[in-house]
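Narrative of accomplishments. A recurring question from our advisory board has been how the design workflow behaves on a single, concrete structure rather than in aggregate. To address it, we present the structure tokens for one chain from the evaluation set, followed by the sequence designed for it. No filtering or post-editing was applied between the two.
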């Protein structure tokens, strides 16, 4: 039987655990072997930089980016390594005002727009020539497109961001449940068989970030129905996610299968998305149930940070598979999990202050 949820921590408790996590993340980002999740960890540090006690988060991010700025983004490698770098580059530009970060992000986004393989209706496919849409890609592309559009005033990039969310929703959302499949095999007209929790969290994180960036933009009619479609899809997904939370405050790695293990990074992602959705607010979200779920989730992910500042219980790199495959993935720590947890706890401080 699952343990009872821990009580929701107060802001001082969140500050303390966030400072410990940020200190560990800063050391890890600069000292360890490169990992595709490093950009997400960097993004998390930049979110944490706004919180008390986060130390030299911005300085660490600048040190990590320094050799990258010297040579420019590597755009001919594995998609997962370079695509996510645009978002922390844009956030560093916002913090420092340095144009080199904006240019770095522009080059990545231009490459995605002009070179990335796509479906006929514009969905970015990360492993050409395979005609596949992965739910992760919604996060790796749309938030950076939206933030770039917000910073530069180019509504075209905001429309591109919404377009990526819509096409991923079109192929990957399960209409009855509102949950998302991991991969759609477009040419075969089928999808992977399980509702992978972290994949669902990638979409909810991306959708909440994009909706925040388009808020208050002049002439919203230029976006058409896309914001409403995404808001409705997000509300339906989050309402389903709330109903699937374990008593521990976490979620299972196959989200609708309580016989799969509890997984930390997806839980951090859902906490982040719920916090944002409650602050926005997102129309159609069951706010009372979501708020209760959110408080338990924050307490649960804070409890997964050990005395060394490591965010534990994170499933490692996960390609699509069947239930047994998802449930066999090793758990430990990973920079992408650390990054999302940093974002979620930073959002929790903002949520508590609102």
């Amino acid at each position: 039987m699952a343990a009872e949820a821990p009580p929701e921590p107060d802001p001082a408790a969140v500050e303390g655990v966030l400072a410990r996590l940020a200190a560990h993340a800063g050391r890890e980002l600069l000292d360890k072997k490169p990992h595709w999740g490093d950009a997400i960890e960097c993004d998390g540090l930049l979110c944490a930089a706004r919180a008390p006690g986060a130390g030299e988060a911005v300085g660490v991010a600048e040190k990590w980016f320094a050799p990258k700025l010297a040579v420019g983004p590597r755009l001919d490698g594995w998609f997962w390594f370079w695509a996510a770098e645009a978002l922390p580059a844009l956030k560093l530009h916002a913090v420092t005002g340095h144009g080199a970060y904006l240019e770095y992000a522009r080059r990545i986004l231009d490459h995605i727009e002009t070179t990335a393989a796509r479906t006929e209706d514009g969905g970015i496919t990360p492993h050409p020539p395979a005609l596949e849409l992965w739910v992760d890609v919604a996060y790796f592309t749309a938030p950076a497109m939206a933030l770039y559009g917000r910073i530069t005033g180019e509504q075209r990039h905001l429309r591109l961001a919404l377009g990526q969310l819509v096409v991923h929703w079109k192929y990957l959302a399960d209409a009855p449940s509102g949950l998302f499949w991991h991969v759609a095999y477009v040419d075969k007209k089928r999808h992977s068989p399980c509702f992978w929790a972290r994949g669902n969290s990638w979409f909810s994180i991306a959708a909440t970030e994009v909706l925040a960036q388009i808020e208050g933009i002049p002439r919203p009619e230029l976006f058409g129905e896309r914001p409403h479609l995404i808001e409705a899809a997000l509300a339906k997904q989050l309402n389903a996610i709330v109903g699937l939370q374990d008593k521990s405050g976490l979620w299972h790695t196959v989200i609708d299968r309580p016989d799969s293990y509890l997984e930390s990074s997806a839980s951090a992602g859902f906490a982040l998305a719920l916090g944002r959705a409650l602050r926005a607010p997102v129309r159609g979200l069951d706010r009372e149930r979501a708020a209760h779920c959110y408080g338990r989730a924050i307490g649960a992910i804070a409890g997964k940070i050990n005395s060394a500042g490591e965010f534990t219980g994170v499933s490692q790199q996960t390609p699509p598979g069947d239930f047994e495959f998802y449930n066999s993935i090793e758990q430990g720590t990973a920079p992408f999990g650390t990054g999302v947890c940093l974002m979620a706890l930073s959002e929790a401080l903002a949520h508590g202050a609102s």
